[in-house]
């Protein structure tokens, strides 16, 4: 069945690829309808190998005339898990958008392994980062095809491995048609937690050195949340990971937590040291854990 399925869908995949391998990311940010203001610079280079060292150096950014990030400085070492937390509107998603270079900075720079992302081709930059968005875009095709979207030339074994790492194996085993099951328009036949795990499997398949996880704001039941957290921690092994977190309970194991307030980093450290500091993080923690 799969042997038949893959050639028949191949053209579809090529089309989707051409239409933009990044559509998922761009839709996540609602940018698809806008004319892009960011282009490859003259002489932009392709960056293929990366250990995954991310640095934001004095990053200042405005949407139109309103400054949103004011001198943001942080460092994520290869293999680290770093979380960004803060009130709604603090600028967390903006940090991710800038990492993908959806906008140019007003000042400062963002580097990957010491290379300014402005000097990279947009395609090569965006291939280095896999994202698990809050709201995953699924198309009305099989589960297999939806996962394969992460890297259309991946083998069946690689898809199987991604399913395993995303903790979807039991779910797939229970489906009457297994991974040939259609997920419905926009994945309507899947729960929120299952959709996020499909997104994790996709991201795993992309096998990019950097993984970004934008935690869904809508609360999942605790069993789904646990499954997602376990899937993420397996998926992020050996990767640099950046988590935009809304529930602080999900990031207590992060190597570093960056606390953002009104576009400024007000604190950074691990969970224990931030609690001890009794600053904004401790305040948010207390509110969420009353
Ligand atoms: P939340 O937790 O609610 O998702 P956030 O911390 O991720 O919030 P951002 O989405 O980064 O916050 O937004 C930071 C600020 O920038 C907000 O005040 C928001 O209204 C504004 N903003 C975000 N996107 C745009 C845009 N495309 N154009 C203009 N302003 C924007």
TrEMBL record:
Q: Which residues form the ABC transporter domain?
A: 54-287
TM region(s), chain numbering? 1-15
What domain of life is recorded for the organism? Bacteria
Where located? Cell membrane
List the protein's name: ABC transporter
Q: Which gene encodes it?
A: atmA
């Amino acid at each position: 069945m799969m042997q038949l399925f893959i050639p028949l869908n191949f053209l579809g995949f090529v089309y989707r690829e051409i239409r933009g391998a990044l559509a998922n990311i761009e839709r996540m940010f609602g940018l698809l309808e806008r004319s892009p203001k960011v282009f490859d610079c003259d002489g932009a280079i392709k960056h293929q190998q990366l250990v995954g060292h991310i640095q934001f150096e004095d990053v200042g950014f405005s949407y139109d005339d309103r400054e949103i990030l004011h001198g943001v400085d942080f460092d994520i070492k290869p293999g680290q898990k770093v979380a960004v937390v803060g009130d709604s509107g603090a600028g967390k998603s903006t940090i991710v958008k800038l990492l993908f270079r959806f906008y140019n900075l007003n000042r400062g720079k963002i580097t990957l392994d010491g290379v300014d992302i402005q000097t990279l081709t947009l395609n090569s930059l965006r291939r280095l980062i896999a994202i698990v968005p809050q709201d995953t875009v699924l198309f009305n095709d099989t589960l297999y095809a939806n996962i394969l979207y992460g890297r259309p030339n991946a083998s069946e074994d690689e898809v199987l491995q991604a399913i395993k790492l995303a903790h979807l194996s039991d779910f797939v085993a229970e489906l009457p048609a297994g991974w040939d099951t259609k997920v419905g328009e926009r994945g309507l036949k899947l729960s929120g937690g299952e959709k996020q795990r499909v997104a994790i499997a996709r991201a795993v398949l992309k096998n990019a050195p950097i993984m970004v996880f934008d935690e869904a704001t809508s609360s999942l039941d605790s069993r789904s949340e646990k499954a997602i957290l376990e899937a993420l921690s397996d998926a992020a092994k050996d990767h640099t990971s950046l988590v935009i977190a809304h529930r602080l309970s999900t990031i207590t194991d992060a190597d570093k937590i960056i606390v953002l307030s009104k576009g400024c980093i007000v604190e950074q450290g691990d969970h224990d040291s931030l609690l001890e500091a009794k600053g904004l993080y401790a305040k948010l923690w207390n509110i969420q854990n009353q």
